[in-house]
Amino acid sequence: MEDNEIVVITLEFEDGESVECEAIGLFEYAEFPGKTYIALAPTDEEDDDVYIYEYHELSDDEFELLDIEDDNEFDKVATEFERLVEESVD
After folding, report:
1. What share of the chain is helix, strand, coil (3-state, %, to 5)?
2. CA 70 to CA 11: how far, in whole Å?
3. CA 16, CA 29: separation in Å to the nearest integer?
């Protein structure tokens, strides 16, 4: 993702529902070295959810999103994302 580039990703869930999201940004968390995470916000203004996935860039044009299966890892990464958001607002 380039700076100031708006990236829209459609998430498709197992139940058949799909949600169009804007990528908020990529970030890393020191406790899990070598991993990159992506935060996604639904483009539907009524939905204030944020989705966080592990992000792997496969090539310049391809990437994959992986569910964070470990609850402990997810909780820590979500807390780090909230900290980064608060830091950017200050």
Report:
1. 20, 40, 40
2. 20
3. 31
Question: Which amino acid makes up residue 79?
Answer: T
The Cα–Cα gap between 7 and 36 comes to 17
Per residue in 18-74, pLDDT tens? 999 999 999 999 999 999 999 999 998 777 889 999 999 999 889 999 999 999 999
Residue owning tokens 């991993």 = 35
Distance CA 21, CA 50 (A): 9
Contact 36, 54 (CB under 8 A): yes
For residue 36, give the nearest of 54, 15, 16, 61 by alpha carbon.
Answer: 54
Question: Which run of H or of E encompasses 74?
Answer: helix 71-89
Alpha carbon distance 48, 43 (integer Å)? 9
